Every structure is written in structure tokens, then in C-alpha cells.
Predict the 3D structure of the following.
Amino acid sequence: MQLHKIKQYNAFELIHILFFKIVYKTLLLLRKVYVALIHPKYEELHCKNGDEKYQRLSSSLYSYYGFVCKSTHIQEKADSILKGKTTVFGHVYSFNPDTDWLKDPETGKLWPGDLYWDKAKFIEKGYSDVKLVLEINKLNDIVTLAQAYYITKEDRYLQGVERYLNGWVKCVPVEFSVANKIVMDFGFRVINLIHVSLLCGGSDYFRERIHPLVLGIMKHHVGHLWRYLSSRWFKSGNDNNHNIGEIVGLYSGQLWMSKFGYGGGILYRRKIRRELKHLEDVTKKLISPSGCYLEQSASYTRLVHDFFLMFEIMRHSLDYNRSFGWFDTSGYFEKLSNYLLAITYHGGLPNFGDNDYARVVIPFEEAEDLVAHVRKHSQETKSAYNYEADGQWLYKSGDENDVYLFTRVGNYSCFVEGAFIHAHNDLLSLLIGVKGKPLFIDKGTLYYNSGSDIRQEFSSTGAHNTIQIEYNEMADLLPIGYRNYPKSMLLLSERYENRCEFKGVVMYKDITHNREVSYDGKNIAIVDTVSKKNTDKERGVVRYLLGEGIAYQEEDNKTILLTGANSSALLRVQFEGVESIAVKESSFAPHYGLKKRTSLVEAYFEIDNQKIIKTVIQVL
């Protein structure tokens, strides 16, 4: 453990952390010996009265089927899968389900399959980003095939499910390779196998020939999840989405298995009660009173929301009498739903923080709208826009300009120092939308397992819509997490139907940055006041990354005109207090692994002690 982490704990807490880590390492060693001696395989598990049990499950899970998307794009995607194609992070690759589960789709090289999961590495020379192969091994494509079968009842999709599942079992050794490195990914697979079972359960062939293997895989995965559950062993308090995903995957698998005669005794119920206590503890740490998810990433908020959606469906449908214990997540789930709808702008989530693009409820997703399923159980209300106590400031106007403003500052905007979270150095970075178009956007995250240079490019202060003096960073970026967090405060917040005013400050190193944002029904004004303790002349820049499809014309050396796809004028952006401006080619990642081109506006200035820069955005 690094020094910046150790200093957060007292002696007793350090002993507590160390004890559980030693026990964990001992159990891991014993498990490795067992696996080396036994060479476990996935067994097929059969149950009596399978048809009757499936009928009861289907009738009790009516809420699940109400969420399933039946759009034609599902069948088109499934047909592509059957033709040997897989889509990962927006890229289409050739894929042979009999041989390619450990194949790097970019380089064609096979990730080592003979390394026990704890020895497998995320970064290997000559391989592309590991999340490509990890995403494939979540079994997402099998869910799509199952969904296509549910919609069409065509046997070819069911045969595809069987072939893909058998291919995965053959190619990925039990508990070996990087595909099994992340404990949460076992949770993803359990949930995806439940999706497959629910979508294909109406088929006699599936129940007799495929579901026994599904149960066998789930039995192993449930055991693995319990054995290595992060909340059991890692007591630093630096919890994240992995803790939630592991517990929800484990809980869902246990409930499903219990309905087919595997589990359900006193010890089983005690185990689940412990899991739910862990889930309660983690949830209270990670979700603020208003519903803001404190890893400070819109994408990971959606991920956690969808874990809770699956949890709620399983709990209400399969544990309605609370026989397995109780933790009522509905309040947190409702708050997360309201929060997601509040920060969404015309169906799109703001791209702040890491944007993993992980998917929990694949059958519920619409083609382009990642929050469409949220609207099925929640409605957006303006009372939900107030997240300023949770480190986020949001404004949506009610006038014809349809102005959207978002920034992060203040309480909760930074998490526990050293924790592996998905926030960026983006305090006071401003995201703007006007008339339904995202105009100033976040750069997103291309990769975070491909070296520090790429991670720095997308998460640094200079990658965001704010001011940077020389190359100073708000916080020091580490391979895992940050240290030396800045201090920040919200100073003023006023929001009305067609006007608003915001003031916030962030302080780091010897720099103090005050940002004021106002909207008066026609213009958006941004006033940045920057001061520093030393009086040396230094270079500064204020940056704004333009949304996709936004073009520009330079009117003079301090003014640009922004236009839409049809060349109609949208905004005039004028800078005051700067020496010059430039518009450069740039890029952003709408989600993990996908890079698109756009333009970046930069305004340059010099500062000795203090500088005021004003940006006026006139809505045309």
C-alpha cells in the first residue's frame, strides 16, 4: 500500500486491513493448489420438474419481460453475430465462436490461457487494450442471440446460443486467463446467463440441452464470486462499482440457482444476508443523499443504476417473501433513476469521467438511447436538478433556447484519496448544450488499460473545458486513482426558467480559479478569474471542445461563429482578456474504445499574478 493511502488510516485500521489481506492471500493459495490438483470443469446440472419451474419463474418475472426491447435492430445484430462478426466498443471484428474467445481482436494474438487469473496481466506487450477481450468474455453476444430468439422464435438463434456457449467453455479454462481476472466479470456473466435463460426458457430444447450447462457455469461463478468478493476481504473503504456489481451478480445467481434446487438452506441464507449487509454499506458510501453516484462518472452511474435495476427485478420476483434477507435498495434506485434523467440531454448522457460502456441489462437497451429503459420506470422532474450539495451543478432552461449547463465543484466532487475511481481532473469544466445540440462536450475516455500517456491525454486538466496554467494539474494522476486533490467550493447557485447564475472556485498548488457562469435568456457568459501566488509570467489557455458535427468560422482573432450540420448559425463565441484564439483538430471518445474527430477552441493569455478572461456565448 502506498504512503498516500496509508496516511488515511490509524494503527488499528491498518492491522485490520492487513489481517484480511493475509487471510485472502492464504485462501487464494489453497484454491490454486486445489485447482492444480483437480482441474475443475463446468458440470451440467439437471433438476426435476424443470418445465414447471420455468413456468413459475416466467409468470413471476413479468416485470422483466416488460422491459425487453423488441426493435428490429436486435435481429439485424444477431444475424451479424451468426455470420461471424462481433461488435466491441463500436468496432466490428471477425469472430469464430469455436476458437476466438481469448483472441485479441486488434492484433490477432491469443492472450495466455495457462496463467491462473491472479497472475494474468492487464497490459502485455504486443496486445491491444485488454478490455476488448474482457468485453467479449462477458458473453454479451449470447444475450443478443437469445433476445433474437425471444422475438422471432427462430431455432437458428437458439443454435447460435448453444454453439457460442460451448465454444466459450472449450476456449476459456476454468479460473485461468485474463478473461477471469476481474471478479466483477463473473457477476456480468451470471446476469447475462440469467438473461439467456429467461429469453430462451420457452424452448424445450433450451431447457433440456442448454440450461444444464448454464446452471453448471452459474454454480461455479456463484462460488467464485463469494470466494473472492471484494467487500469481504478489502477493508480500506475505497469501494467502487466493482463491489456493487459483484454482490448483485452473486445475489442474482444465488436466487436463480435456488429455484432449481441448488442452495436455500440456513447457511445459504446467512451467506446472502452477509452479502446484503455488504451491499448496504457500499451503497451508503457511493451514493449521495440526493442520488449522485460519487465515482463522478455518468457512464458508471448508468452501470450502477442498471445493476440495481437487475437487483430490484430479482428481489421482487424471486425473493418476494424476503426469505434470503433484506436490504431495500429501492430508495437508492429511484434516486439514481431521477439523477440519470436529470443529467441527460436529449437522450444523451454527458461524457464526464471514464465512460466504460459496460452493459448489464442488454435486452432492455434501445439502439441509440442508453437511458430509454430508465424512462419506463421513472419520469424526469425539475425538482431532481439540484445536485449542488453533491459536487455537481446542473441547469436546464425552460425557454426556446433549451440551454443545458453542467459542471462539477464542491462537496463530494473528489473521492477518497488513492481510491481507484473514474473521475477526471475536470472541476469547473463546463459542458453546454443549446437547442438540443451538445456544443461544448467532454473528451471522454478512449482507453485506461493502454498506458499512462493515453490515460493522461483524456483525464488531465488540459483535456477539459476549463483553464490551465502551463502544465499544472488539479490532482496528481496515479496508475490507480489520484493524490493531492484540489479544494473546491460552490459559492452561488440561482436557477430560474430562463436565467441562471453560478459561481465556484477550485484551488490547487498555488493557483486559485474562480468561474462565474450566467445565462440571461439570450447570452451565456463565462467569467474566469485566475490568480496565483508567484508573480512569474506564465502561459495560460482556456479550452472548449466542440460537439460532434459543430463547424466553425473565425470572424476575427477573438471571435468565432459556430454552425450546425446545415450551416445554420447557432452561436457566436467572443473572448475578452486573451491575446489570440485558435481552433485545432481534436478528438473525443463518445464511449470507451471509440475515437471520433472534432475541433478544439483554445484562447491564449499570459498571467503574472491575476488574470480575468471573459467568454460570451451569444445564442443566435
The longest strand covers residues 594-607. The chain has a mean pLDDT of 90.
